[in-house]
Write a structure and sequence with these properties.
The protein is built from eight helices and seven strands; from the N terminus they run ααααβαββαβαβαββ. It is of the alpha/beta class. The chain folds into two domains: 36 residues, no CATH class; 173 residues, Rossmann fold. It has a seven-stranded mixed β-sheet with strand order 3-2-1-4-5-7-6, with helices on both faces. Helix 1 packs across helix 2. It is globular and about 45 Å long. The two termini are 34 Å apart. The N terminus is likely disordered. It binds S-adenosylmethionine (SAM). The site of S-adenosylmethionine has 24 residues, from helix 4, helix 5 and strand 2.
Length: 242
């Protein structure tokens, strides 16, 4: 998993701050991280290096200070500031939701229902339903729709796999997650709904882009400020499902 795929935090919502109440649920990332570093001798070298990077990262520091679960919260806040995806009463499905930064942003910006899924457990966030499951397993998609109680207005995917270090294998896994999230969004979103997915520059997701362009009125690329400069991470924002 690259740095940007790891759960971390980011800056605040400066210009148009729409957070109507403090981030909800669980402990701030920083508090739990303090505990983790003490047990570092039990962790792999890559885990220790990752924790050190988080502690040195200003976006992570800002997220800890503001109570966001991850620096990723700032990436989605920026995307939402630009496109106004979350509206009062929105119904949202968040794929790859742990530790919960995007869920926090959606709840704080007035979403009526947020269902998140992740391979990892997520500490409860009031106003959301959080399911631990592999989204690629059969039946999980239906489980999410049932938990939401109907079709979503917004589908988000920040899913990222743990890299195995073999370039082609990692590439195929990245593309597979983008494909399955896109297919789910196209199949389940109500007309006029929106979809955001993590993507990677240079990745061969051209066919996904073509599908999105065929099914949405507009598709934009976004590189949020909180996304590490050196990483190839970008986000695809598909607007207004036909
Ligand atoms: N957006 C999140 C936030 O704001 O806190 C951060 C998401 S993190 C970058 C990527 C997540 O994708 C990881 O927690 C990982 O477990 C999850 N993930 C990867 N593959 C998955 C799958 N097949 N099903 C569910 N979650 C998955």
């Amino acid at each position: 998993m690259s740095d940007d795929e790891k759960p971390t935090p980011a800056p605040a919502e400066p210009a148009r701050r729409r957070m109507v109440r403090p981030p909800t649920g669980g402990t701030a990332a920083g508090r739990s991280m303090g505990g983790k570093i003490k047990t570092a001798e039990k962790k792999s070298i890559s885990s220790i290096e990752w924790i050190k990077r988080q502690l040195a990262d200003p976006w992570s520091e800002k997220a800890r200070a503001e109570g966001w679960r991850s620096r990723a919260a700032f990436k989605f806040s920026e995307i939402d500031d630009r496109f106004r995806l979350v509206k009062k009463g929105s119904r949202v499905i968040d794929l790859g939701a742990a530790p919960g930064g995007w869920v926090q942003v959606c709840v704080n910006r007035g979403a009526a229902a947020v269902v998140g899924v992740d391979l990892l457990p997520i500490e409860p966030i009031p106003g959301s339903i959080l399911i631990q499951a592999d989204f690629t397993e059969p039946g999980v998609d239906q489980q999410l729709i049932e938990a939401l109680g109907g079709p979503p207005d917004l589908v988000l995917s920040d899913m990222a796999h743990n890299t195995v270090g073999h370039r082609q294998t990692d590439h195929l896994k990245i593309i597979a997650l983008i494909e399955i999230a896109s297919e789910f969004a196209i199949r389940t979103l109500r007309p006029g709904g929106h979809f955001v997915t993590k993507n990677f520059q240079g990745g061969d997701a051209g066919h996904v882009l073509a599908d999105l362009r065929a099914n949405f009125q507009d598709v934009k690329y976004v590189k949020p400020a909180a996304s590490r400069k050196g990483s190839s991470e970008v986000y695809l924002v598909a607007l207004n499902k036909k």
